[in-house]
Structure formats: structure tokens, C-alpha cells
From TrEMBL:
The keyword Electron transport does not apply. Gene3D superfamilies: 3.40.50.1360, Winged helix-like DNA-binding domain superfamily/Winged helix DNA-binding domain. PANTHER family: GLYCEROL-3-PHOSPHATE REGULON REPRESSOR, HTH-TYPE TRANSCRIPTIONAL REGULATOR SRLR-RELATED. It comes from the Bacteria. Repressor of the lactose catabolism operon. Galactose-6-phosphate is the inducer. It comes from Collinsella stercoris DSM 13279. This is Lactose phosphotransferase system repressor.
Length: 263
């Protein structure tokens, strides 16, 4: 974390502080940098313009991110569920609202792991749906609603991400099927959709294979990023729900493979 002691630092020191922050978070906002460095938003915008001119960062709406190489950016480490709950919350909420509109009474849906899908619970129909999930926090969010049929699947509990995983087979769903599958992702690069753990990602792959309609729910930070295991491809997905302030070039990259819903 950067502190206000850098507020009076030389431009080069501010630039380095911004780059260090980007290495930790991948995407930063103008307001966040200004608060952290103790400088004005105008100073931050000038610094970002300088860094972008040198090809060290890419400007996005309201901030900046690391540039996407030909191989995409990669996660430096796997974030815990608690960490993810506090990252890009507004962007995730916007994507979650969009996805929830596609759920109607009478639907049977699969919902995978991730804080974005947990936010989606706030906007689902309150009765007349069937939900299959391997997401423990999501299960808890819906557990008290007697008007929702709820099924928790899986075997081994992965505490870091709060999901249940299953053996590498198509038997873990015990015959359960959902007409619509909603999954999140830790990265999208080119046509590939990624997860951090093979066993968790294979649950998502199985759910997508069983569904009639397949959806990705994510925020713009994940676009251009690669992770450990590619569990599906965008050309097999019916639509991606994503926050509307995602950078235009990122939206265009997604639209070359599938439908993108931003409103």
C-alpha cells in the first residue's frame, strides 16, 4: 500500500509507485491513486498520460491497467475469497444485475463460485426457481428462502475459494441438470476462459456442458488476463455479462467471439 509520504515526491518516484500498485492490483483508479499518493487527480492524470506514452500502462475509463501482451497478463497469485469480495465491487454488481435479468420463474440454473455470482443472488427472482451450486457462501445466501429449490453439489471443500470440487468425471452432478449455467472467471484471453484451480474449473466445465444456455458473469478487469486452467471457450458461451464501463477495446475483443451484454 502506498502512503501520503510520496505526495511531495519527484515525478519519477510517483511513476514508480503507480507501477508498483498496478503490479499488485492489475487495475487502479485515478481517485484511488490520488488518495494513496496524496496528490490531486489532475497530477495523477498527467502521470498516467506520461506512463501510457511510454507504453508502460494502458488507460481505461477512470484509471489504468497493465498493458496486455501477446500472451496476456497473468495472475501473480490466487486471491482468497475474502480478498475478492472487496475487489471491483461496483463493477461486479453491475454485471450481476445484468445476468439476474435473464433468470425467470420456472428456470433451473447452475451458479458457480465467485463473489460476482454471490452478488447476483440479491437480484434473482425470489420464488419459483431451482438453483444448483458448488458455492458455499452462495448456498448460505439462498438457504433461508423456502420458495427457492436449492441443491449443493460437490465433495471436497476448497477453503481458499469457498467452493466444493469433484473428481474429474461427469458423475459429480448425480444426474442434476440446469437449463442455464452462470459461471465467473479469473481471466479471459482471446477465446479462452480461465480458472485458478483445475478441479474447481472442471466443475464449471461440466455444468456448462450440461446446460442449454451458457453465460459468463465477470468484470472488465478479467479481460486480457490468463490463469492456470482454461475450462471453456467464448465461442461456446451464449453471452458475457460485464460492467458497462469496461474499456471499448476489451468489449470489442469479447464481441469477436460471443454476445456481450452491458445494459
Amino acid at each position: 500500500m502506498i502512503t501520503n509520504t510520496i505526495g511531495g515526491a519527484m515525478k519519477s518516484e510517483r511513476h514508480q509507485a503507480i507501477l508498483n500498485l498496478l503490479k499488485q492490483r492489475h487495475t487502479v483508479t485515478v481517485n484511488g491513486i490520488a488518495q494513496g499518493l496524496g496528490v490531486s487527480s489532475m497530477t495523477v492524470r498527467r502521470d498516467l498520460a506520461d506512463l501510457a506514452a511510454e507504453g508502460l500502462i494502458t488507460r481505461v475509463h477512470g484509471g489504468a491497467q497493465l498493458p496486455h501482451s501477446a500472451h496476456g497478463t497473468t495472475l501473480s497469485r490466487v486471491h482468497t475469497h475474502d480478498e475478492k469480495r472487496h475487489q471491483n465491487v461496483q463493477q461486479k454488481r453491475e454485471a450481476a444485475k445484468l445476468a439476474a435479468r435473464y433468470v425467470k420463474p420456472g428456470d433451473s440454473i447452475f451458479m458457480g463460485g465467485g463473489s460476482t455470482l454471490e452478488l447476483m443472488c440479491e437480484y434473482l427472482p425470489t420464488r419459483g426457481i431451482r438453483v444448483i451450486t458448488n458455492n458455499a457462501p452462495l448456498f448460505s445466501l439462498l438457504a433461508d428462502n423456502t420458495e427457492v429449490d436449492l441443491y449443493l453439489i460437490g465433495g471436497t471443500y476448497r477453503r481458499q475459494t469457498r467452493v466444493f470440487t469433484m473428481p474429474s468425471s461427469h458423475n459429480g452432478f448425480f444426474g442434476l441438470t440446469a437449463s442455464k449455467a452462470f459461471v465467473s472467471t479469473t481471466g479471459i484471453f482471446g477465446n479462452e476462459v480461465f480458472g485458478s484451480y483445475m478441479d474447481s474449473a472442471m466443475v464449471l466445465a461440466d455444468a456448462l456442458d450440461r446446460a442449454d444456455e451458457r453465460y459468463i458473469v465477470t468484470d472488465g478487469e478479467k479481460v486480457g488476463r490468463r490463469d492456470f486452467y482454461a475450462f471453456t471457450t467464448l465461442d461456446r458461451i451464449d453471452a458475457v455479462f460485464i460492467n458497462p464501463d469496461t474499456a471499448p477495446d476489451q468489449l470489442e475483443a469479447l464481441r469477436s467471439w460471443t454476445t456481450v451484454v452491458t445494459e
